[in-house]
## 1
Amino acid sequence: MTDQVESAHPFYAYCQNALQEIEQQGRYRRFTSLSRRSASYPVYDKGNLEQQEKPVVVWSSNDYLGMGVEPEVMNAAINAVKEYGAGAGGTRNIAGTHPLHVALEAELADLHGKEAGLLFVSGYVSNQASLQTILASMSGGWITFSDQQNHASMIAGIKGAKQSECIIFKHNDLKDLEEKLAAAPASAPKLIAFESVYSMDGDIADIGAICALARKYNALTYLDEVHAVGLYGEQGGGVSQRDNVADQVDIIEGTLAKGFGVHGGYVTAKKEIIEYLRLAASGFIFTTALPPSIVAPALASVRLARQQNWRREKLFERVHTFQKKLKEAGIPYLQTESHIVPVMIGDAERCKEISKRLLEEFSLYATPINYPTVPKGTERLRLTPNPFHTDAMMDDMVQALKSLL
Ligand SMILES: *Cc1c(COP(=O)(O)O)cnc(C)c1O
């Protein structure tokens, strides 16, 4: 690259300035290179492929149940590669639909008690593509009532439907939601978009109450269960299953990449909605299908997770034990009813510094969560214990935090 090429278009200079600004604001994200060891999750190797450093205990993985290192799940991937090759070779419409896709969609629909399911290449795409497609339908005029803390992927879908209107309601605030529903024109098609477990504060929506409001004001309900699938409900069908309200939700969206430990996203709903999305959603139609080497382990994982209640029991036992240890040590954390344990720091620089020192001095990894992901003054380390964090690992983390806070 010569200077001449870099200066040819003003965008080069724009990028240089923007990067400097992000750095000055302390928002420059740098990757930490970590490789998971399947045989000893949650222990990872730190460093690059050429130079391995000390092993690190990771406290920030979203593979909440360890499904991604389950031998049966890994073997399903290995066997699928051997049998079917590495990639999918096409979109679902162009030589990309495998019997495994169909089986996984049926499994997910069954998990949520819905008629049908549709796979997407990620949870992000499932939200973005489904919401954008729904909100561009019926010649526009939709009004979306969107929880203030909804994930970026839902916001992308809502904003992407340019003819539709978006009204943001206060986080998990039923009174505010009802006021806003009541104030909207009765004739407009309405949709309420929300999550079950919110991943930063670990708080949980009252799904039944939101669905009751939806019925009262004739709104469609769209629920993101990304941080709950696999973990809540007697078969891991999410909070809607735990609360026995899945049948009241029109569209349930989830990921195969967090609690199920593999990769991919999906929606489940009544047949006509799923068929419409299959035929109309650009983000479904025009992208190569998930490869069988991903779908096979995902299917194995969902089936196993549905049966293996011990994983959910063990996860919550570990979470409660860890919370108890933090409490005894006087470390400030958000007491939530979910599996997410935010340790509050309250300052962006300090949060980054503590995370860095945990890694360098104690070989412990916990991601710092700063503005704009959370409000200023509520910066935190987001810890996610899993069934394989031992008491000794917990004690190490508690001791390290005690010495750093
Ligand atoms: C991670 C996440 C997604 C996206 O899921 P991926 O499968 O990682 O693309 C969607 N919604 C929420 C709330 C998330 O946290």
## 2
Amino acid sequence: MGHSLRLALCATVAATSALQIPFLNSPSRTHDQVAVQPSEKPLINSTAIQEAISGDRLLRRAEKLYEIAKLGQEEYNHPTRVIGSAGHAGTLNYIYEELLKLGDYYDISNQSFPAVSGKVFESRLVIGNDVPTSAAPMGLTPATKNKEPVHGDLVLVKNEGCQSTDYPTDVAGSIAFIKRGTCPFGTKSENAGRAGAIAAIVYNDEKEGVSGTLGTPSPYHVATFGLSGDEAEPVIKKLKQTKRVDAIAYIDAEVGSILTVNIVAQTTGGDPENVVMLGAHSDSVDAGPGINDDGSGSLSLLEVASQLTGFSVNNAVRFAWWAGEEEGLLGSDYYVATLPEDENQKIRLFMDYDMMGSPNFAYQIYNATNAINPNGSEELRDLYIDWYDEQKLNYTFIPFDGRSDYDGFIRNGIPGGGIATGAEGIKTKKEQEQFGGKAGDWYDPCYHQLCDDVGNVNVTAWVVNTKLIAHSVATYAKSFKGFPKRTTSVVSEAYVEETKYHGPRLFV
Ligand SMILES: *[C@@H]1O[C@H](CO)[C@@H](O)[C@H](O)[C@H]1NC(C)=O
Ligand SMILES: *[C@@H]1O[C@H](CO)[C@@H](O)[C@H](O)[C@H]1NC(C)=O
Ligand SMILES: *[C@@H]1O[C@H](CO)[C@@H](O)[C@H](O)[C@H]1NC(C)=O
Ligand SMILES: *[C@@H]1O[C@H](CO)[C@@H](O)[C@H](O)[C@H]1NC(C)=O
Ligand SMILES: *[C@@H]1O[C@H](CO)[C@@H](O)[C@H](O)[C@H]1NC(C)=O
Ligand SMILES: *[C@@H]1O[C@H](CO)[C@@H](O)[C@H](O)[C@H]1NC(C)=O
Ligand SMILES: [Zn+2]
């Protein structure tokens, strides 16, 4: 695996040098040959590339993507582009074919990697006589024994269940009841399994429910639910009064490993030692076609990549379409983790574009700062601020907390940032004044659902943000003047401490 991986990674670089070195060394170079160089194209111009972005073209691509998502129907009974589905394979083919059409402007490479994917077919939790409405199986949870309901007493685990000594002996054969906090959900589930629990429930330390994931599978993981603090409270009270509470837990699920693919395209022109990088994720969740999440970002990138071919660039531009984002940033993590140090240093910055046209949108900028994030992250943040200001558009800051594919870059010292338009967060009154739409509703009412279809994008917002993506590419493809040089690849403690997400789901 290590080998094929290395090859895929270096493909871009190798191909670039192969194209350039013979040309530069050629002693028989004539004026005629110089005249047909691609640099005859005008140098990238932000205004001009922004003018080329059109809502019609984006919308046509969205319609195409929805048709592709329908390929997932046979296996999933509804359109989806989740990794491993025909809808995702179709998405990868579409991106690849569209890039091939752009001729030799780009070197395209595939990076194949193993991805853990989990599927929950059915689940049910009954505590005493109640069916808690907030009970949600954790991502990548295994099934209960024999995919059958299990019955047992709830046993309150001490502290936050991060140490084996927190588990009383009567957890064996029972259902561990564990408080959220301190260590990842996966560690709690593993500890419960080692202590002989038949299932585990992690209850929130806040009122609401927990949408979490166990992360990397362990043979000791047991079937695990998340539960809201509200619904846990009466249960904890009873258990503390040493009253007996029994429960029935049932999860029918499968966790498996598949191969999936990141697609990376880099301009053959421009300085490959100073790379402008940007990415979006090619996959959706299994519940739906993912046209806003993240069909929108993926198609924005494709459109910008396509319009960029009208220009020459000073710095190389590298586009990435990540797979397995929804399973926990698998593709982008893998990409950064396997980058040799000298390749890491060539990436001057990484820009993340996930969910560009939420129907009840806000123009959101990740609050990336140089105090906590690699030097340059704040300059990128300020580029977005300046642009919205110039367009006389309002914007808000949102936490830069590991929810999307920038995470691996920041953790490996590469400056990063990005923009978004909102997922399952609730629009405030103030934001309604700033952006229109409806206060009290989710920014994307179809987030991670079947209705994330072509009707689930606000084309106005999508066009605005695609122009901003084009502007970000144009700015850095032209020059890194005033942008901090790369230094360390060391991760800041402060970032790690503040990060509770790894992808769309909480892991701790
Ligand atoms: C960039 O493009 C715009 C619009 O097409 C044009 O007005 C402007 O002169 C161009 N700028 C440069 C420096 O070429
Ligand atoms: C890269 O992946 C795409 C999408 O799966 C596929 O169509 C293409 O043939 C692959 N190319 C190579 C060189 O493997
Ligand atoms: C942005 O992050 C900085 C550094 O963490 C913090 O001081 C500031 O309050 C944040 N701003 C907003 C608007 O969230
Ligand atoms: C920006 O927000 C203010 C309210 O804070 C609002 O009055 C104004 O119309 C908004 N501007 C735009 C372009 O929506
Ligand atoms: C998209 O947002 C704009 C600006 O808020 C609004 O005027 C328009 O009606 C929205 N479009 C749709 C289809 O909701
Ligand atoms: C960040 O970059 C700026 C501008 O290049 C430089 O002056 C500053 O010393 C850098 N800060 C750190 C902590 O490296
Ligand atoms: Zn997403």
